[in-house]
Write a structure and sequence with these properties.
Elements (H helix, E strand, L loop, with lengths): L1 H41 L6 H19 L2 H10 L2 H4 L4 H18 L3 H24 L2 H22 L5 H6 L8 H25 L14 H14 L9 E3 L5 E5 L2 E6 L7 H18 L16 H15 L3 H14 L1 H4 L4 H8 L13 H20 L7 H13 L25 H20 L3 H6 L4 H10 L9 H9 L6 H15 L2
Parallel strand pairs: 1-3
Antiparallel strand pairs: 2-3
Helix pairs in contact: 1-2, 1-3, 2-6, 3-5, 6-7, 9-16, 9-22, 10-11, 10-13, 11-12, 12-18, 13-15, 16-17, 16-18, 18-22
Length: 512
């Protein structure tokens, strides 16, 4: 009997080592592709973009082919056998679960389709940059039409029960469906729209104009670097660069890069944008190195990822406690702008609630409405209920319905986001879920960290980061989003935490 157990255990160990070896190889290719993508979005020469898109498509497809090889499939088949499963540790079982699910999903897409999609979206991103600058939706339209068409084909290949959109959503938020989203959206919408109306009609409005002026780019960069260090971002394992549309990207272990955008007439987009991207980055930097080059090394989901950035940007960065500590740094950077502006006025101005056109600049209260708009539009595109050519008109109608405003240009409307040109249909709901996850996590952290508000007021954000490291970051991809949230907070997703948070904060600010 001992010989049989030893033999099975030895085989199991060898199989796990083989799986890790395969994922190590694939992770190197993903790292190369990520570096190429970072370069394309930050500093590539204009004329080099087309060739880079081809090279990126090749590397991505090579990684894709390796991940869906027959060898990997056979290996996972053996690891899923009952007698082998009995020999696995809990982490190893999680590795096999995640790898098997990823394999099945990836295997559904032919390599030729994957490469076609990669090249298409890489080129589409560059067309989008020009189209947004020139307010030219027509130039992007044929690219979006092809992206939607290929996305529908991929949804069919992935498989779904009753909604093709669910097949795409699954790639960003495991276990989430359009039906579940609607159950979440309804109470949010019914509470937020009247609350926003009450703020606008009855609240004592903040003077947002005090945030306008002339702001030196170098001073903005210095502030961004200071605030990133304060929230725990490790510059020895990353860097800060400028881009058109801010993003964070993990190149590999100990290389997680953030970007921001500087504008001369405002400094808050770069400051809070840096905090936001820093929230993403400290999650990536906090992943357990013991899981590197395995299926478990990565974020649990895009929604959990977004919870970290929204928590840092809004619940910390825009809190009165944090600004009590950091505002003197802002006054020092821009004495002519803020020397005589009291903290209370600045605090109210950076928490100004006003229906606005641009999602990434939207306040906490109206932000989720932007996501609801995008969710409804992209679902309609995938289901065939909306044509790409009608997208600008549909966008403006939704903006009027949800926020009461209509953009004058497509640049401030349907062209403002890079997600659809990048092929990331199904991504937007993760932003809303991130807000909800963040509020629930933050509530739990405040219960478990003695005097957290006071600590933040003294500049100690790392106490919160340590809690997140323990309960979220260190888990990697061991759990699905819903299970991770319940393990961290003791409860399933409950939108009431977010509603309680925004109503308390903004009722106080606006004295309503």
């Amino acid at each position: 009997m001992r010989d049989i157990i030893h033999r099975i255990g030895g085989v199991t160990l060898k199989l796990i080592d083989q799986l890790k070896s395969k994922y190590s190889e694939i992770s190197y290719l993903h790292s190369a592709a990520a570096l190429m993508a970072w370069d394309m979005r930050t500093c590539i020469p204009l004329k080099g973009a087309e060739m880079r898109a081809e090279a990126l498509g090749y590397i991505s497809t090579l990684a894709f082919r390796k991940s869906v090889s027959e060898e990997v499939g056979a290996l996972l088949g053996q690891l899923n056998e009952n007698k082998v499963q009995e020999e696995l540790t809990e982490d190893e079982k999680a590795m096999v679960r995640v790898a098997s699910k990823s394999y099945k999903r990836a295997k559904a897409i032919p390599p030729e389709l994957h490469q076609k999609y990669s090249v298409l979206t890489s080129n589409s991103e560059k067309v989008w940059e020009k189209a947004r600058k020139e307010n030219d939706f027509n130039s992007l339209e044929p690219y979006l039409e092809e992206i939607v068409e290929l996305s529908r084909e991929m949804a069919r290949l992935y498989g779904f029960e009753d909604n093709p959109y669910d097949a795409l959503l699954e790639g960003f938020e495991e276990g989430m469906t359009a039906r579940k989203l609607r159950k979440i959206i309804e109470p949010l919408k019914s509470d937020l729209i009247p609350f926003i109306k009450k703020i606008v009609e009855e609240g004592e409005l903040a003077d947002a104009s005090l945030l306008e002026g002339r702001f030196n780019r170098r001073a903005q960069e210095k502030l961004s670097r200071k605030v990133l260090k304060l929230i725990g971002y490790d510059f020895d394992a990353g860097r800060l660069d400028e881009t058109v549309h801010p993003f964070t990207i993990g190149i590999g272990v100990n290389d997680v890069r953030v970007t921001t955008k500087y504008t001369s007439c405002e400094f808050t987009p770069s400051l809070f944008g840096s905090i936001h991207e820093g929230g993403h980055a400290i999650y990536e930097q906090g992943l357990p190195i013991s899981l590197k080059e395995t299926p478990l090394y990565g974020a649990c989901s895009l929604g959990i990822h977004e919870s970290q950035s929204r928590m840092m940007e809004n619940m910390v960065g825009r809190s009165r406690e944090f600004l009590s500590f950091f505002y003197p740094q802002i006054q020092k950077a821009y004495p002519s702008n803020f020397k005589n502006v009291p903290l209370d006025e600045f605090y109210r101005s950076v928490n100004n609630v006003k229906p606005s056109l641009i999602r990434i600049e939207a306040d906490e209260v109206t932000y989720n409405l932007h996501i609801m708009i995008r969710f409804e539009l992209e679902e309609a595109l995938i289901k065939g209920d909306l044509r790409v050519s009608d997208l600008p008109k549909a966008w403006n109608a939704k903006m009027k319905e949800y926020l009461g405003i209509v953009p004058d240009t497509d640049s401030d409307g349907v062209l403002q986001d890079i997600h659809w040109p990048s092929g990331m249909i199904g991504y937007f709901p993760s932003y809303m879920l991130g807000n909800l996850y963040a509020a629930q996590m933050y509530s739990k952290a405040r219960q478990e960290i003695p005097g957290l508000d006071k600590r933040i007021e003294m500049g100690d954000v790392l106490s919160l980061v340590d809690w997140l490291r323990k309960n979220i970051h260190s888990m990697g991809r061991r759990y699905e989003p819903e299970k991770l949230l319940k393990a961290a907070t003791g409860k399933e997703l409950d939108p009431s935490y977010f509603l309680k948070y925004v109503k308390e904060k903004y009722s106080n600010i606006y004295q309503i």
